[in-house]
Amino acid sequence: MTDTHPAPAVEDAAVAEVVKATEATSLEEKSVHVHGPDCDHDDEHANDEEQKDAPQYRNDFDLLEVNGTKDKTTDPLVKNYFEAKELFAKAMERLDEIPEGAEAELIEKHKDEIVSVTSDLMKAFLLDEKACQINQRILKLAEQYEMYVQTHNPEGTSTATVDSEEEGAESQTTIYTRDSVVFVIMILWTGGQFEHCIQTLTFAIQEFEPIKGRMLELRANCHMALRNFKACNEDLEEALTVEPVNVEIHSTLGNVYYATHQAQDALYHFKTFIQVAHPDSRTLPNAYYALSTLTLQSVPSGATKKKSNQALKQAALLKEAQEYFKKAQDVDLRFKELYGVVTGFNDIKKTAFQAFQIRTAGRNGLISTDPAPALLEASEILKKSFKNPGISSCASCGRPDNVANEGRTAEQKPKPLIKCNKCNKVAYCSRPCQISHWNSAHKNVCKK
């Protein structure tokens, strides 16, 4: 592959930001702190020289080991993570025995070890990318493996012709294997080079059918990091058709649709998720909290007669919303039992607590035995906060804010989305998105 040279590992801040905004649960550490990519402080406990190239495992699943509860759950994602982590660690031990260097003689002498280690590292990455961390030695292994592929043309090698970016230059033919392509993806992913990673993932999706679902999921996360939520959702929806067993995708889709104010789609995916999710899924509490508020905001307004159809529907939905909130608290307790910490107060959980707990007091200051009036009031507030998706997000890419806000300080007033000045019914994050959407669709339906 051209234009996919190994890049130095950098802190994955872009993914951390998006995950923090849309991921199902975040952790509120107590006595134990697991450093993650969104930490804004130095690790005062680590020796820089010893740790700079060491893999830093940052997944919440590591807390299961800290808490001694890893064997108390059958969650398949936990199994995948620790399997990937063990595979990665053992491959790194074998990698230490391979001398560095790209000389032909060295590659020839250690070709079997180079191929074996590369294969296991890629298997680990495909199992769970969070169990794998790039360091300088892995980057050098990438060079060694690439030289091996180009020199030996092993079984399973294919070729691709890529047009050069330089004007007048001839097309280039690249030799690749599945592992060499996944290796490039691993490097670009860890380095936060999401636009280049999308290009390579797109190639892998077209070329390698057995890992298509996994590649779609990774590409969706790249789109998410770049705030292209429309493309993110399209990839996730397709990944579900390829791998229906990957039920956690429903949770991710629910979060993205929730964040972009598309309530009905969010409801569908969260409901589908809770029906099929493992009871110990770390994203399950968040799904129930989201369902509690989404159901509450769907409660109809204006029921005047106690036994009217409107009033009966109100009562049924209020009960359903309360049951979701109670279930969220129950699975939250199970989460704490396993992980030793509580789920953090992300926006979804905070909104649920504000609706179902803070507003239970009556106007006289006493706790009401009938929560319905307070919940109906909360429902109306939620309806106002969940704006029309056509206005609250870009009609072209799904981004919920103006791209011009990037880099603006907190003191500067944010710039709103750019509304269509003809119909005022759709909005865009940027002029390029507005032009693209106008030419592809909106000009045919736009009315003053």
TrEMBL record:
Biased composition (Basic and acidic residues): 27-55
Stretch list, region Disordered: 24-55
Domain of life: Eukaryota
InterPro entries in the cross-refs: TPR-like_helical_dom_sf, Znf_MYND
Gene Ontology molecular-function annotations: zinc ion binding
Pfam families: zf-MYND
Keywords from the named record: Metal-binding, Zinc, Zinc-finger
Residue span, MYND-type domain: 394-446
Entries under SUPFAM superfamilies matching the protein: HIT/MYND zinc finger-like (SSF144232), TPR-like (SSF48452)
Keyword Thylakoid among UniProt keywords: no
Protein name: MYND-type domain-containing protein
Organism the protein comes from: Mortierella polycephala
